[in-house]
Structure formats: structure tokens, C-alpha cells
Input
Amino acid sequence: MLRLHAAQDGGLARVRLPGGCVTAAQLVAIAAAARHGNGIVELTSRANLQLRGLPASAGADVAELLAGAGLLPAPDHELVRNIAASPLAGRHPAALAETDDVVAALDEALCADAGLSALSGRFLFAVDDGSGLTRAAHADIALTATGADSFALLLAGVATTLAAPPERAPALALAAARAFLALAVPADGRAWRIADQPRATRDVARALGGELARERTTDDTLTLDPSMIVQPDGRIALTALPPLARLDPDSVDLLARIAPELRLSQWRTVSVLDCEPAAATALSRALEATGLVTTAGSGWNGLSACAGMGACGKALLDVRAIARRRAAVRGGDAPREHWSGCERRCGLPANAEISVIAHPDAA
Output
């Protein structure tokens, strides 16, 4: 938000949403900010949003809009407020614990610690409710519920012997982050993430009085697709998918009218929680009216693409246009596929079964 990233289609501002949580008022501000650029609002694989096509002169106005909506609470920590969380926040049938309070406390304590602003912008925290929807194995530091009253600590996807109750779990995660920062920096200076530094998982665990529990942790197996899921309390969690993870300002404004709060996921979905069963169908139709996909049978399900030609100077093809043609002919149960405009394969989902890469000769 504070330093626009230069892309081929203009400046790019990333809006960090700890836990993927965004309120209606914040969505209105995001829509207004997006209108300063080319109107493209993207969902990211870390459950954040980014605004594209912003002129350099719009940076201050965009930051002011977003700060006014509470989206910039700690400017010095803006780059490190990377906290993924279970998108249904304890409401999935497989969930073991609630996560909202843990996420809020973790974000608040992170922003209050001046030393932790030294973390890399790539460093990722995760808080999983036990359902496995957070991709905790891909986070630097993860708190994974093992029961209603306990969160286990994972380091770069490796389980440790360390755990804490919900009220102390954020402190455990931040102690791990401090221990990582205290490690000697490699000669090449590229220890941005725990996995970048040999033996860092072991050293961090031992610094906290623990050990590694086993060599590696199994990757999360669940995927969040468009659906209606019955919560343990009988209410409904509605999940919808923006095609190719993009929205426009008008769609964002419409989403702001649907519910007081929405949850984004690392699967680039949008969820409305705690819906009364009698209202679920009408809410699903309202999501469809914004252009979102609400059924798993759509060809858009499991289909993704990078920014592509026109947005990225390295892209060799307009892979987004190709992906749109693919959506019309593939089924919702087809293998998950990602289209990349160059060999860097930006935005490649961890669960992609097919990866299509533009070849220089194709241009």
C-alpha cells in the first residue's frame, strides 16, 4: 500500500487482510481505491487483495482511503502482516477450534513489536482450525489446532513438540519469529523465510525449548471450492469463486451489500459465514449477481492463470484470454490447471495438477 509495485499495467498495491477477513466498509474503500487505477481487484494466494493499474500519483490517495477504513493500522509493519487463517474460522465440520481471536491477537502483538518489522515481506504466519484449509505446511510459522484448547507449532511445515492454549498461542508464534531473526544470516543474505536457512527449523524449535517432532508434515489435503457447507451450529457457510481471481469495483461494491463481513481464502475464494438456512439460496444468487461462481460444476473451478500479457512485461502470451476459452470447455471436476505466461509460473497454486507454460516460440 505504501510503496506501489511497478507492473506493466501501472502501479500495484497489495492490501493485506490478516485471516482473510474484510468488512463491508473496507470493501467500499477498496472499490473506491481501485477506481484510481484500471479497476482490477485481484485475490491472491495469501488471501489478500491487490489493486492494479494505479498511476504513481494515486499512491497517497489510495493509502489515505485504505487507512481510513482500518486497513493500515501499523505502517511500519505493513509488509509483515501476513497471516493466513482458516477461511471458515472454526465453522467447517472438520474444524477443532475457533481461530478469530487467535488471529486478531497475533496481528495486534505482531504490530506492537518493533523488532518484528525486520521480517521479510515473504514471511508467512498461519492459523489453522484443524480442518486443513489453511495450507499451514506452506507457512513459515503455523499454529494448527489439535483440539479446542491447544494449537501446535509448525515451522516451515515441520511439526514440533511445542504447543500452547489459544490465549498463549500468538505469543508462541511470535517467539518463534524472534528466534528466527536472531539466527546468523547466511553469507548470501537471502534468509527471507525459515526454509531458506539450513537447520533453522531445528534451531528455532530448540531456542524455544522444544524439538522437531518428525522430519516433515503432510501437506493439507482439503481444498475450498464453491459450495454451501452446513456449519456445526446448523447455519450455512457460502463459498463462491471469482473467475481467474479478479473482481471489478462495481462487483466489490455489490459484495459489500451482501454481508457485513466476508472471508477470503488462499484458494482465492470468497465466503459468507453464519447464513441462516432460509436465506442461503437468496444469498447464493446475490453472489452470482456479482459475477462469482457458486457451484463446483463450473469450468472455472480449479482454473487459474498469472497476470499475463498486458500486465506483466515478461508474459509471452495472453494466458488469461486462453484460460477464459478453457473455462467454456472444461468441467468442474477436471484436474486443476494453471496457465503461465512465462517460465516463472507466478501464482501457481500448490495443488495444480496441470501447469501450462508459454514457450518463447509461441509468441
Q: What stands out?
A: The mean pLDDT is 92. The first strand starts at residue 5 and ends at 7.
